[in-house]
Amino acid sequence: MGTRDMRPTRIAATLQILESFVNEYFDQNPISQLAIISTKDGLAEKLTDLSGNPVDHVNALRDKSNKDLAGEPSLQNALELAMHTLRRAPTHGSREIVCIFGSLTTCDPGDIKQTQAALKHAEVRVSMVQLAAEVHVFKRICQETNGLFAVADDEIHLKDMLFECIPPPPVVSAKATSDMIQMGFPIRASNAQVPTPCVCHHELSFSGYICPRCRSKVCSLPTDCDVCGLPLVSAPHLARSYHHLFPEENYKEIDVEANSGMEAAGLVCFGCEGEVKGAAARYKCPRCRKEFCLECDIFIHETLHNCPGCV
Amino acid sequence: MLLLDGESLIHTSPTSCSKDEGTLYYTTKRILWVKQGTQTPNIVIQHEDFRLQQVSKADAKKVMLRISVMGPGQAPSDAPALTYTFAWKHANKEEALADRDKYVNELYKITPRKTAGSDAAAAGAGNAAGAAGAGSAAGTNGAGKGATSMGSLHPEFARVKIGSDPASADDIKLRQDVLSKNVDLAKLHRALVVSGLVSEEEFWSTRKHILETQAVQSQLRKGDSSTWLDLAPTTQDGGNFKYTITPNIAKRIFKEYPQVKRAYIDNVPHKIGEKQFWKRFLASRFFNRNRSTSAMKGNPDSIFDTCLRDEDNMLGDPERFSSQFIMRLLDLSRTEEDSVETGNVPDFTMRPGRFNESLSLIRRFNHHSELVLQSAIGTKRKELSAPSASEAVDRELDKAIVLPDLEVPRPEKRVKLNIQDQSRYLTSLVKGDVSMRSSDDEMQQRRSTFSISFDLSQSLEGCGNTQRTMAALTGSVRRVAFKSRPNRIKELSIPSSLNKAVEECYGAGTEMLRHLWAIMRVPMTPEKRQKADKIIAAFDSVHRHIRDTVTKANSAESKNANLGSTIEQMVQPVIDSLKAGKKEYERRVRGAQVSS
Questions:
Q1: If one looks up domain A10-163 in CATH, what number appears?
Q2: Residue B247 pLDDT greater than 50, yes or no
Q3: pLDDT tens-digit readout, B67-113
Q4: Neighbour tally for A135: CB within 10 Å
Q5: A229 → closest Cβ in B216, B414, B517
Q6: How far is CA B551 from the centre of its chain?
Q7: Is this model's pTM higher than 0.80 or not?
Q8: Contacts of residue B221 in chain A, CB cutoff 8 Å?
Q9: Distance from A150 to chain B by nearest Cα, in Å?
């Protein structure tokens, strides 16, 4: 990881891209949790535990002491530690391991085929982005567990490949059932006069969120209540995760020349009420049959995730 | 085999013990093993004598169970004297593991818990060094119990051992590791446990997952490095070279050169000392043959010259690879007939072994690569005997010919989300008239509001009360800035003793609540209920502590005149949480009583 084929070194470029990955990941999946594990000198070490707060992870990534390089990496140790950490995750979610690997070798204490079988059994999806070259063993692990495997050419490619792992994977196994889980929606408490400690860090603060079940104060959302274990989220968080489950259908493109007899030139787009000039294509929602211009189409599908005509 | 009065059979399995086949019986009072062909049981273990059990690792080839038992005439505090090992023969490993797990679960129920009671008192004092002696007996006990304390014993994860009730020396070390790595937890530990508010066991009982993770992390082993071992000397002043040979390096040398290992075993320590051995090794021709030009070839040496000769013989032996077992794809001789004579002069460049100096180096490189591959693949080259080999060979050829990259990717089956009442998700919550299509006039009006023309030369007089607007704006900004000023907490000038007292109240209250909610999450059993009652009783002590703090605050000297009321407000949330927890518990208990 110390080679300078990526500026300034592979490890520095990787850490930077990982920071933006963490932020983007929690943006797209606010009620999910992440843990970071690093491997060097034949052993694996957990840098952060499973948590839903991006600040912890970004701090760990910026920590200078984690930038030391030593010895050979060990993929098996890292995968075993990751699997053990994922055990605690609830079964109604998907479990994934994403690796960025810069080495062509791995120094393992046992047979990595067994680890591969264990991963497959536990239905953990392993994705990997290689920085050096394709290694058959790594590719096989990713394929067996239905993950993505890519070899990055440069930093931009690395970022693209890494960000492909952000959207949640579709559920493939037949064993997954959709059960109800209990979640809490805490109210914000801002006591203007007197500070009180929060239960997660025991630090005095003036504002926080009160858990609806046990009435203890937590400092930020989304998180699990430290006292009673209830997952606490706010409605926007759920809404953001929701749009992965029900994505908007793509709009049909209507060629103006084809139906030149029908709508005269100068149709008004339903989204922005701006005029759609004659030659430009219009996009029609299949459900509400409203027509939109190109910018509104892009905005609806990438940012809004709801069709204004259907809502 | 006779059962005693009141005894009934729970499990039975065919197992072997000490290389004899037999049957293992588990009854309500005893564990029995009968050798095949006999009637009377050879091994009889009373449940009271059973002390500890151990299981073989899930990835070991044999499925085994070892039981440690007190022998006759032993005092209760002695370590168990007798051990029996039972092995399952299996066609299907999963079945054998499931079978063995049945016994493990039964034995776990009768595992004695209070044997290391006196040891736990010493161990629990927190001094690992002091408890090392007592802890080793408790350690095996704890570790043994730990092996069975994983409820489901899933094969992949059965390696982790956590001590249960009495804290073993490993446990204590684990806890210290966790505390040294995690600053927040250490602070909390100091505040709660060291000051005596919460006992050590209780503190760790809700934080088991942290201990588990640390245990797993510390159990990771380093694998053998596969790089080519090149002992490079460091130059010291005076022109001397210094070679460092650690035990790790010595192990790698032995792996690479088995002749050196044999020489080591033969000669050290009776003929020459270890240091001498390594000195001679480094000075010998064996070590130095390829390192430099002929000038510094090294001195002749009795031990290592034999090593040299052995190696040349072994590596240079043309019969090393028996030609029958070469895979068809790799056998170059098969395609010799395809390389027809061309009009060129026959090739003389690529001839192996042309230069004598590099010959041994090349041979050693190849041997090293062979070792690395063998360790990765595991099995030696399989024998391909003629008749059944054809399918295997075809499969090999198939694997080499069919490239997955060139195949059309098959989309994986996706499971559709199954929601009971789908209509509720897709309808909007807008009530009333939904027709939003505005008329043309309205649209024109709306669009005209967005097209604004400026005339900067116009003065602002008569524009409305700008002063009031500005005052409102700056007022709100000031309020927000006031709220987020940096030293707000310090301004309250709470004396540090009071601060600490408040923190203690919170710490104790939160810990109690944690335990209470953890108990309430699982369905109630009588013992859990007792524990919960104890916790509720402990709430009173927390309340008392809070009251003391408030009275102290009221009587304390401070710059803050309202110190008393401030402190009261500060502790109000924890009082609320305690009340909420108690109410919920009582509601559950009442609910359970009503339903029972």
A1: 3.40.50.410
A2: yes
A3: 777 766 666 666 676 777 777 776 667 777 777 777 777 777 776 65
A4: 19
A5: B517
A6: 48
A7: no
A8: 77, 109
A9: 13
Token couple for A36: 């970071």
Q: Where in chain A is the domain with CATH 3.40.50.410?
A: 10-163
Q: Taking the CB of residue A178, how many other CB atoms lie within 10 A of it? A: 12
pLDDT (tens digit per residue) in A272-283 = 777 777 667 788
- Residue B125 DSSP code: T
Comparing alpha-carbon positions, the chain A residue that sits nearest to B419 is: A178
Cα B452 from chain centroid (whole Å): 65
- Residue B148's nearest CA partner among B110, B108, B98 is B108
Q: Say whether B198 sits in a helix, a strand or coil.
A: coil
User: How sure is the predictor about A17, in pLDDT bands with cuts at 50, 70 and 90?
Assistant: very high
Rg (CA), chain B: 39
Which residues, numbered 133 to 152 in chain A, qualify as contacts with chain B under a Cβ-Cβ cut-off of 8 Å? 143, 146
Phi, psi of B544 (to 5 degrees): -60, -45
Q: Which of B93, B97, B152, B156 to mutate to test the interface with A (most CBs of A within 10 A)?
A: B156
Phi, psi dihedrals of residue B40, rounded to the nearest 5°: -85, 145
Express each pLDDT in B16-72 by its tens digit: 777 777 787 777 777 777 777 777 777 777 777 777 777 777 666 777 778 777 766
Q: Do A197 and B506 touch (CB under 8 A)?
A: yes
**A-proximal residues of B, 413-472, CB under 8 Å:** 413-415, 417-419, 425-426, 428, 430, 438, 443, 446-447
Cβ-defined contact of A84 to B160 (cutoff 8 Å): yes
Taking an 8 Å cut-off on Cβ atoms, the answer to whether A143 and B404 are in contact is yes
| Domain A252-304 fold | Herpes Virus-1 (3.30.40)
Residue spans in chain A of domains classed CATH 3.30.40: 252-304
In angstroms, the CA B1 to CA B7 distance is 12
CB-based contact B213 A85, cutoff 8 Å: yes
Give the best-scoring range by mean pLDDT among B353-367, B447-461, B507-521.
Answer: B507-521
Per-window interface: A 182-241 vs B, CB < 8 A? 191-197, 199, 201-202, 204, 206, 213-217, 226-229
Q: Which residue has the higher pLDDT, B293 or B135?
A: B293
Q: How many interchain CB pairs under 8 A, A with B?
A: 143
Q: Do B418 and A178 touch (CB under 8 A)?
A: yes
The structure tokens 């008393």 sit at B564
Q: Say what the ipTM of the complex is.
A: 0.74
Cis previous bond, B269, omega within 30? yes
DSSP tag of B272: S
Among residues B391, B59, B53, B215, the alpha carbon closest in space to that of A109 is found at B59
